[in-house]
Amino acid sequence: MSARVIDGKALATEVRERIATEVAALKEEHGIVPGLAAVLVGDDPASEVYVGMKHRATEKAGMLSRQLRLPAETSQEDLEQVVHELNDDDAIDGILVQLPLPDHLAPRPVQELILPDKDVDALNPYTAGRLAIGDPTFLSCTPYGVLEILEHAGVQTAGAEVVIVGRSNLVGRPLSVMLTLKGRDATVTLAHSRTRDLPAVCRRADVLVAAVGVAGLITAEYVSPGTVVIDVGTNRTEDGKLVGDVAFDEVAEVASAITPVPGGVGPMTVTMLLQNTLEAARARRGLPRR
Ligand code: NAP
Predict the structure, then answer these.
(1) How far apart are the C-alpha atoms of 38 and 94, rounded to whole Å?
(2) 275 is catalytic
(3) pLDDT score of 1 more than 80
(4) Fewer Cβ atoms within 10 Å of its own Cβ: the N or the C terminal residue of the chain?
């Protein structure tokens, strides 16, 4: 293997320690304890795991974590009422509604209800719009984590060719906007399932980000020597193993740096949720953001 393996877990630990220190200072100097509320509807096992992880990380950072578990048959109206109450609750700085919701519930109206000041998951269209016009409020957590990884790994984005595979509103699309903002200055290609000759497009990249959800899609054929490869994908194999979108072993022979799955982008997603909650707590009290 020639590639440097970027340790997202170690970076996440470092950033979470810094966040915990800032939370302690906020409490001591201003009597503020940042609060995060997570709403979980139904009993999807994967969602249970994610919400549990977020809860533990929030408490470990010294913040208030509130979990609201609603039955699977909750109505749209009742779910929206819960969000209204959290919007009005001064102890809560950040609200997230865990996806996916049960089929009878529409996520968009719920996301639109979350106050932009508390939209730490950055899924309200207002938040996406602010990013699109180059004046972002909160950055959605997974792309924000990718930016932190690139910065930590010393990867220059200015002038770089970045290819992102996957154009979802959760990952690929917001990441493409973030990387083209002034200050990051990358030249971004946003590829998807209709992209012609994907391997050739990917080989143009200085930085290649895979956010697809297809195990092992990105093979060595997609990667030029020296490319930095960031694997956002999380896929379960038949035997229950967690793997990314990148065929790690063969790509690591060609790339200059690569994130593993698990232990790459995943731990940074929860970390950036904590960062957003801290920023929300500061901003809501008129304190400067980081
Ligand atoms: P998504 O909404 O399903 O979007 C997948 C994207 O990949 C779509 O734009 C789709 O193209 C594109 N795509 C699908 N098959 C393709 C192919 N064969 N070639 C090229 N493009 C293809 O998924 P998502 O929510 O963005 O998630 C993507 C992956 O990241 C998943 O594995 C997910 O579990 C993972 N993820 C991880 C984290 C984390 O914290 N580590 C967070 C979020 C997501 P079209 O638009 O043309 O359909």
Answers:
(1) 8
(2) no
(3) no
(4) C
d(CA 106, CA 243): 30
Active-site residue, 231 included? no
Query: What is the predicted pLDDT for the residue at 288?
Result: 84
pTM summary value: 0.97
CA-to-CA distance for 277 and 61, rounded, in angstroms?
Answer: 11
- The residue to mutate among 163, 212, 214, having the most atoms of ligand 1 within 8 angstroms of its beta carbon, is 212
pLDDT of 211-240, one tens digit each? Answer: 999 999 999 999 999 999 999 999 999 999
Nearest to 190 by CA among 209, 218, 206, 203: 209
- Position in ligand 1 atom list of the atom nearest CA 217: 18
Contacts of 1 (CB under 8 A, 6+ apart): 249, 252, 253
- Ligand 1 atom closest to Cα of residue 261: 41
Question: Do 147 and 261 have their domain in common?
Answer: yes
Write the CATH number for 174: 3.40.50.720
Task: Specify whether 163 is located in the same domain as 257.
Answer: yes
> For 159-186, what is each residue's pLDDT tens digit?
999 999 999 999 999 999 999 999 999 9
Q: How many CB atoms lie under 10 A from the CB of residue 254?
A: 19
